[in-house]
Fold these 4 entries.
Entry 1:
Amino acid sequence: MNTLPVIRSGTRSKEKWKKLTRRVNDAYAGGVHGNAWIDTYNYDLLKARQISLKDIINTNTKLNKVNNYIRNEMIARNKKGAQFWVNEFKSVNLKDDQFYYTSSGIAIIFGEYEYGPYSNGIHTFKIPSTIYK
């Protein structure tokens, strides 16, 4: 399996101390199509440490609000032709799910075949900070 990384780096928030490095990966191991995925690395430059979703969504109340927001967004996208498996979505994985900062909150990334068919592709759900603050 060959992985060809594409590195994109830059600040993704109004706060200049937050740094995002995003790596888009693609691999072909035979079959009908290759597979792509995105790895993100978020850093607090002032504290010199990596930021995880657990640092942002740090209570069950916040997690429930984020999960409900994503579930409702999946339903809305399905009405427009997407094919999300809404019943399969139970919760954001605070340890493994990829995310990055936006100007109004965070964006959580779900990969191919994650909660939907390959034809859905990689999907991003932008969560306003008002949902988890």
Entry 2:
Amino acid sequence: MKITKCPERTAHRDIAGLAAMGAIAKVTGTATRNVRYEIALVSMRQALDRSGVSDQAQALFEASGAQGALYPANPAIRYDGPVIATNEQHAIQQVASRTFVAHPIQTRGSDRVAAITANF
């Protein structure tokens, strides 16, 4: 690509990735060499739905009364902060001011509370 001086394969892969995530959308009526894209504007609720936060985790977050943004937890990251709400499927943890992550809980019975404490 002439503007960015990156390999054409890299540009195509990056554009395909952005389109798959819904960050950009192909302009209707454009194709092949003349294809154009536009930035996809979405509501905050749509962005949360695409982010991987389940409806149950979102409902638990809203019921907790916390204000801020909720994101899905990355299992490869260890988060610090208080757990503000739990149910049988999720734990909501505050990781920064007005920033929360939703952890899925995959344990059963009395092991649930110990697993929440150990994993966060």
Entry 3:
Amino acid sequence: MGFANAQGLINAHLSEATGLRCVTTIPTTRPERFVRTIRTGGYLANGVTDVARLTFECWAEKKVDAQSDAQHVRAAVLALRGVTLSGVKVHRVEEISAPMDSPDPDSSTPRYVLTHEVYLRGTYRKGQ
């Protein structure tokens, strides 16, 4: 049983769904707006489902934009239930934490943070 790179899979979807730049590390030169996706945990459920706990940081120069981006990310992630992304089925999505105002402590840059668990079906490969 193999499992997809949850961050990469969800980031590709979010970029397309929201039009935002979605990354796993903060760019050296920060764009005006971007989303950072961090896998903050998860677990293997029922032997075939990877439950990926993903935290999304929505950064922007203006607080109102960070909040708006967080709501767009939230809607796009919640809409994934039953969708197949690059051959990987999303069985379920659970909201762990709704968007919260959490400015970057070092720079005070506006940032909203939210966390979801995304249930991804593993892939069977011949010989496994």
Entry 4:
Amino acid sequence: MSIYDEYSEQYRLEELEISERAETFLSFTDKEIITLARQVLEEEESEYIIEEYDLVGKILDYYDKSRRISDKQRYCLCRAIAEMDYFFNEHFDIEYFRKTHLGNEE
């Protein structure tokens, strides 16, 4: 296996993990997603980690004006949350995430 093939496989696995986390975050309420998206935008180096950093900011601005988001916008925000979470947390535990980032005791 060449270095390129190894890199491609690693990238594919990272993308799969991020997508799975984003799907999990879609189960959160709009309010929770908005709260988390605001937090990730404030994180150090988030503009380098989040693929659609500018778009996330625009979606949050739109939400502030209209108080609603579409399904595509929800997924974009969840994807940004997942990208940051993947970068900082190798192992994913949704209940631990809820407690530490949202203060929920569900």
